[in-house]
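Render this sequence as a predicted structure.
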Amino acid sequence: MARMARKTVVVTGGGSGIGAACARWLGREGANVVVADINPAKGQGVAAEIGSSARFAALDVRDEAAWQALLADLRAQGGVHGLVNAAGVAHVDDTLDRCTRAVWDFTMGVNLDGVFLGTKHAIAHMREGGGSIVNIASVLANTGAATAMAYCASKGGVWLLTRSAALHCARARYPIRVNTVHPGYIRTPMLDPYLAADPTLEQGLAACHPLGRLGRPEEVADLVLFLLSDDARFVNGASLAIDGGYLAE
C-alpha cells in the first residue's frame, strides 16, 4: 500500500522547487495533496500534473486568516494529516550593512512567520487525529553566511521553532511529530537565475558539498516523504541535513 494513502497533506510553496517535488512525491504515494502557493499558475500546474488526488489552494503564508480558512475547510472535509512548510524566499548579497528593513521584513514574513502560522494552526487541527509537520530550513541555519544575513536568520528561527513545537506537542501528548530538513544548495528555480548570471557559480557551490554537486529537489522530497510517513514514527524534533556532506566539514 502507498505510504500516504488516505492522508491529506498541505505543501506550501508547492508550485515550484522543493515544494513541487514534495507534492509530486506525495501524490505518487497516495496522499490527497493540497498544493498551496501564492502563484496560481504554478500551483495549478503542479496540481493538474498530480491529478485528481490534488487540489490547488491560493495561499500567502504570511496571512493568518488565510491559514485558518484553509485548515478549517480541510477539517470539514475530513481533516489534515500532514504539512510541509516549503515556501521560502532568499536574497543574495544581503550583508548586514546592505539589508534594508523591507528585505528583512519580507524574508522573515515568508520564511519564519509563515512557518510559525502554518505550524501553530495545523497543530490545532491535528491534535486529536495526529499528524506530521516538516519544515524546510537550510544548512545556512547551521553555519550562517555573510552575504545572506536575513535568510540565515530566518532559517535559524525555523530550526528552533520546530524543536520548540515538537516538545510542546510531546508534552501535551498530542500525536504530532515536527521535524526540520536542512538542504544544502539545491538546483531549484530560486537558484537558477543566479547560476545563469554567473557561469562559475555552479562549480563554486558544488565544491561546498563533498559529494561535488548540487542537490536535486526530488532528493529532498524523498527525505520529507519519509518524515511524513509512519516509517518515521519515532523521529521527532529532529534536524536532518540533506547536503552532500556540507555540514560534515
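Summary. The chain has one domain: 8-242. The two ends are 39 Å apart (CA to CA).
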